[in-house]
Sequence to fold (418 residues):
Amino acid sequence: MEQASVSDLTLRRLPKYLHFLLGLQKKKQEYTSASEISRHLEVHHTQVRKDLAFTGVRGIPKRGHKVNDLVKALEKYLNWDMTVYAILVGVGNLGTALLNYKGFETSGMQIVAAVDNDPQKAGLIYNKIKVFSIDKLPDLMATLNPSIAIISTTKEAAQKTAEKLIDNGIKGIWNFTPKFLDVPEDIIVENADIYPSLAVLVRKISELG
Amino acid sequence: MEQASVSDLTLRRLPKYLHFLLGLQKKKQEYTSASEISRHLEVHHTQVRKDLAFTGVRGIPKRGHKVNDLVKALEKYLNWDMTVYAILVGVGNLGTALLNYKGFETSGMQIVAAVDNDPQKAGLIYNKIKVFSIDKLPDLMATLNPSIAIISTTKEAAQKTAEKLIDNGIKGIWNFTPKFLDVPEDIIVENADIYPSLAVLVRKISELG
Fold:
């Protein structure tokens, strides 16, 4: 796949395709088609066709695209050769779940440290990732140089945490709190927003009557 | 806003708009425009214009749309008058975080019980929600009649859990595991997929160089 410029909207769809294709791979399904992907992921089939063309993997008439080839192309595109380092702030239940989560290993991001404002948590280790006191933030930035911060604090602490992180040189924030963060324009914020999928689910269930 | 039929793609955008608008409301901003929303949420402005028209809230020339009116219309549409009941399965770190999460209160979904296969967890209460042994699932279904199950088990346990839930009458699943679930066609599955936002963040950070 070319490292062409790609819109955020396309980029958001690619992990969904990959997730679906990995499911097919496990079921040992060899070929798939734009219309099959479209049916399962509720993306319009013309859009899927365009996105598949972007992967550079060509389809075979009447059989479709090779699942393995699509998986390889998407993994290459999404994971890159480089890894982005992240620091996690807020080791509560959600923070712990994120630290223990094995799925990030192939995501292009690696959590290299965690911090918490509870000094009792300093020294804990989850999934080989060590928790430090929040005072150590400047040291950690200097030695580990993470570019992303994952904020899994309380909603109330989120804005102050973001400001502190930005003061210490963080360029991107993955926000797991429901707080809408107010940050300078050159800082990249992504909200890990679970509401869109809840909205779809609640709506469909309600329509069942 | 009319209860017109709306595509899943539109439905997925509405919570994003609401989240952004609630942020403006907190900053006491009175009016917004399709182009402002478009800039912040990376949705094309013609699409935003279409979605705003769907809310039924009319804009005022040169001022835009009243933030409060849009918030009211979206909340009404997304929350409904009815509430859908959910049961959570898997009270690990992520499950506990979800039980303690306050944001669901205005989401149209209410978690009414939790179950876990560890008998030691039975009797625990988080955020007024009680944890039961997994054996109690048939009783809970009969008495509380939840239509949605939230699966926050391990990846390995997800498929078996889904099958058990479906056998007990669950119609919709909100899947928080990375497992791609194989379910009958009449069962609605939504994956709480955090990878799309990670993909965008990693990509943008890498582009900073």
Chain B touches chain A through 61 residues (CB under 8 Å).
